[in-house]
Automatic annotation (TrEMBL), chains A, B, C:
Keywords: Cell membrane, Membrane, Transmembrane, Transmembrane helix. It holds the Pfam family Gly_transporter. InterPro entries: Gly_transporter. It is a multi-pass membrane protein. This is Glycine transporter domain-containing protein.
């Protein structure tokens, strides 16, 4: 990540690791998969958002294929989650916290990467959100869950807030470690408040959706994929 | 869209808007989603096909990220559909008509964009079809429906016809507003005839497919995702 | 495929053809689709992995859009499978063998293509695996099955072995027809042994996964998507 302060590279690597952990734990809970399946899903969660971002901004091959540390940390996170899944799999709290950390860090770094590649303000914010939610969405599609971003308590909104703060800070030339950490913290806090208080955004006014099909999944389902 | 007649840019923007409407309405009907989920699916439907096309032809960042109007119209269409979903959600007709308009416009513009980027004849036709069906396919995957392109009455075929007319017109140097509108009209008419008369292409000869699994979805299901 | 020995180009074309056959047969068995759906899925299976690989290494437009033979062979394979599906659809053996051939060939050629485009050792191995499993994974997502790579007997591992042999041979300047065929054979044999003896990698230690949801699919299910 050229031009990014070192602390943010560290955050990026931490985000990769915790998304690897989180993706693998989600996979263990949602489907009976072998070690290859679990590690594949952990790595998809950790690396997917960044790969989509890099392809869309034209930074090809993506950073994941240039810097072995992303690959190594995603793999390590997924493998650790697999090994410890007996202890971790039923714990909601660490999965949710890991996910919120990754979401926050990736939203900020996705937006700043897009700005550094000369994209406009709105596209950079959008790419921040895509970076943050992309990996988890790929994972959910592969294990046939409705993606978290579509059905959960406040999930895309905190990422959007973090990306917007980042883009504003870069635009006004005040981006640096404090601004980045502030954006990360804002996303993390909003996300955790959403989880804690079960906040949901409003559904469509007055519509009673049709739940006849087997492929409708009410969002109040107790299994949660984050 | 450099080099495209102004009318076609207008058509492209109209197609983006109606796909935003259509994708959001489909989302409202298929799953109980909040406003972020509905708008996300509307924008995915409206922008997904063009983004896939631009990545495959090497026009990166994709047009969506360069021209804010695509983004704005997709967002507006999705938000309007969300707000009006009480009135619109049970109406089959507008969803189907919006979808057919988007399908027709995107097939023509996808094929002409590919030709302008020096792709060959067959790849340009294929990219026209991918542009037309790509966004809706992403949407269907995210809400766990078998994509319309795989199971519905004539859906890919009209897009193929429109893309082929477009490519032929460009190849023989007669492409312009009349040819483009003719191709759009051909796709729209074939698609609407397919819907009206429930036309389906033949299934495999003599095979009784296995419907034992929960993930098989017979195409005669009454819920229709367009 | 510049710089690849002619035999390997032949193998690549064979792999494309058998993946077209295989993808279409899988589609016929899994869902009641019309001819467009079956051919679309066959072509997605045959071409998807290579397109993803080419986008990620920056070879855009992808080889599929430059060399009409890939397109033609994928189409032919899918159409033949559709026409003969009455006879072929219940036969496990040819589907599995075709799939193992495609998997082996694509893993080798994916890895060698990545090396030729100056990617590092680990990314090249990863891209070999992605090339091999990408098309089938797209197909499984479109027909709403948990992808084979996540749930089946040894599937990603043989592709990983073939890609690693290929990358090692290129790295030590001994790559050529014998090395490539050796890598293909290694993958094919490991895969077929996995199928024959139902070998599975270990699941997570001591976890009893939750199968309450309709979207969990135990890997011991009799329907197999390869």
């Amino acid at each position: 990540m050229i031009g990014e302060p070192p602390l943010l590279l560290v955050l990026d690597l931490i985000g990769t690791f915790v998304f690897g952990l989180n993706g693998a734990l989600t996979a263990v809970r949602a489907a009976r998969l072998d070690v290859v399946g679990v590690v594949t899903l952990g790595m998809t969660t950790a690396l997917g958002g960044g790969i989509i971002r890099d392809v869309l901004i034209g930074f090809i091959p993506p950073a994941t294929f240039r810097d072995w540390r992303y690959f190594a940390l995603a793999f390590a996170g997924a493998l650790i989650a697999f090994a410890l899944s007996r202890g971790l799999a039923r714990l909601e709290i660490p999965i949710t916290v890991f996910d919120a950390i990754g979401l926050s860090v990736f939203a900020v770094l996705g937006a700043s990467t897009a700005m550094r590649h000369s994209l406009g303000i709105a596209p950079s914010i959008l790419l921040g959100v895509v970076t943050a939610v992309g990996g988890g969405t790929l994972r959910d599609v592969l294990i046939r869950q409705i993606p978290t971003v579509l059905r959960s308590e406040l999930y895309a909104i905190p990422a959007l807030v973090a990306a917007a703060i980042t883009v504003a800070a870069i635009h006004f030339h005040v981006y640096g470690v404090p601004a980045a950490l502030g954006a990360v913290a804002a996303c993390f806090v909003i996300r955790m408040l959403g989880v804690r208080f079960g906040l949901n955004l409003p559904g469509p006014p007055g519509v009673e959706p049709d739940f006849g099909g087997e492929d409708s999944q009410p969002p109040q389902g107790t299994r949660d994929s984050q």
